[in-house]
User: Fold this.
Amino acid sequence: MSGGAGAVVLDASAVLALLHEEPGADVVADALARALVSAVNLSECVAQLVAAGVRDADARAALELLGLTVVPFDAEQAWDAGCLRTATRRLGLSLGDRACLALARLRGLPVLTADRAWVRLDVGVEVRPIR
Assistant:
C-alpha cells in the first residue's frame, strides 16, 4: 500500500487510543484496514505498553491483532524526518512524531493523531485529529 484510496498514516497516539479504547478509537478502527504505521511508531507503542506494565508477549499479541501494515524506517524517511526538525521544534515533536510525518509526506497521505497541536503544523501533510 503506497497511497491507495483512503489510505492514512497512524501516529502512535492513534494506535494507543485504539488499544486503550479512548475517545477517537472508532475513527482509528474505521481506518485500520487502509492504514500504515512507521516502524518507529510501532516501537513507541511497544515502549508505552511495556512502561505501563504490559508484558512483552501481551503487547506483541495486542499489536499483532490489529494487523498493522508496518513500514520500515528507511534512509529516505530518516532524511525527511531530520529535515522536519526545524519546522516542528516549536511544538516539541519527537523523532517518532517526525517519522510519522515523514512517512505521510513521502507517501502523500494524511495522518491520524490524537495530538491536536499537530493541526498547527505547516509541513505539507494533512493532519486529522481523531478527537
